[in-house]
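Researcher: Predict the fold of DUF1489 domain-containing protein.
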Amino acid sequence: MPLHLTKIAFQSESPATLKAWLESHADEARLTTRYLPKRLEEMDGGSLYWIHGHALVGRSPILGFQETGQGRYWIRLAPRLIPVRTAPKRAHQGWRYLEDKDAPPDLGGGEADDLEAMPPAMLNELARLGLV
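Model: Structure tokens for DUF1489 domain-containing protein follow.
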């Protein structure tokens, strides 16, 4: 089972703007980080789960890690946002590990459209109560 990362969708107004940003990168999206994950070998096949509004809203498959040449690393991501069942997640700085058993499942078909239509505060409260 792969290991995943979580990260806040900083400066993203909504999951839709995050999706547009990811899709605007033809081959891959890159995020800069100071440190290479110590559990790098476990991340083969893993994803970066995005936090927006104190909830996990989607994931982007991790393509790998690459040194920038300036003492930092890029997290290379597939340029797509795969919607997941919304799950509450506290905000944090940087990235954190997420075990596969704790990762929310992907949404199928039209489920994402229904959830995106809800106001974020309502969606977060319903997720906190375990109703979505």
